[in-house]
Known about the structure:
- GO terms for molecular function: cysteine-type endopeptidase activity.
- By secondary structure, this protein is an alpha/beta fold.
- It is built from 9 helices and 14 strands.
- A hairpin with a 7-residue loop joins strand 5 (103-106) and strand 6 (114-115).
Amino acid sequence: MVKRAVLIGINYPGTEGELRGCVNDVKRMHKCLVDRFGFSEENITELIDTDKSKIQPTGKNIRLALSELVGSASSGDVLFVHYSGHGVRLPPETDEDDNTGFDECIVPCDMNNITDDEIREIVDKVPEDCSITIVSDSCHSGGLIDATKEQIGDSTKKAGKAVKTKEIEQDVRNGVHVVNRSLSLQSMINMLKQETGKSDIEAGNIRRSLVHAFGEDASPKVQETEGLVATKKRVVGNKEKGILLSGCQTDQTSGDVRTKGQAYGAFSDAIQIILDETKGRKITNKELVLGVRELLEYECYPQQPGLYCSDSNADATFIC
């Protein structure tokens, strides 16, 4: 049995969407995996954008790292993914729908978005009797593994019910500065312009612009929408696979906290606090998420973390 991890932290330095705590989240989780869960350094891959000597968290590099994580796994292995960065929530681009009514995406440093459908396809490739846990400290992260059962949360779409995003407003209290990890469509366009050097990107042609910028490295769903590849019918594999701990619901934003010279994600920080409090004993996925929810509510954060997995995995040990 081998324990392997991919840790992704994106601060987007020098852009209007700059965050402060995402790379710190990854560093803390890296130490936790080694010290508490027995991961070997050689089996942990980090992608961060604050050190050019490291693997950069572009869309292509993230897809490759996740593919290699799953492709190198064998039955009995333990796989773990941590993502801290921006999240976006887009209406579906094909006639197909998902169980939240939107496409939840993570946002690489080059704006080459990765959709919940892609995450689902990666999870489906995990070998039998091999676990994969994903922690996503990003906005709209509920339901990021498409079609996975919702154990804790209320992101699943209610028929005919429109849902408005509940954002964390910028807030300063007692020396703590909190911003959300969500990108508005206009900010995403501005950052894509900055990344590609193209000035003609607008809301009506953003997906065409992604295809032009990234070609075959663009999201398969974007390629389908623009006719670059044939549309394929999506068939969800074993829904028992995959465990997602989300920083918030699909219609919520997650906090990026700056205080006393430190910066971190509110969700990532709460996970570390609960794990420290339970040092010396095992904690289930459900216990961890409920503990984090209670802590964030006590600290007056409006975001509500979620748990998405099978019934049996809800009661399984976190990173078992």
